[in-house]
Amino acid sequence: MANRPYRMNRMFSSKGKCFDVAIDHGFFNEFSFLQGIENMQQAVETIVEAGPDCIQLSVGQARFLQSIPGKQKPGLVLRADAANVYGTELPRYLFSETISRTIEQAVRLDAVAVCINLLLLPNQPELHHQCVRNIAELKRESEKYGMTLMVEPLVMLPNEVKGGYMVDGDIRKIMPLVRQAVELGADVIKADPTDDVSEYHRVIEVASGVPVLVRGGGRASDEELVNRTVLLMNQGAAGIVYGRNVVQHPNPSAMTRALMAIVHDGAPAETALSILKGASAR
Question: Which CATH number covers residue 166?
Answer without folding.
Answer: 3.20.20.70
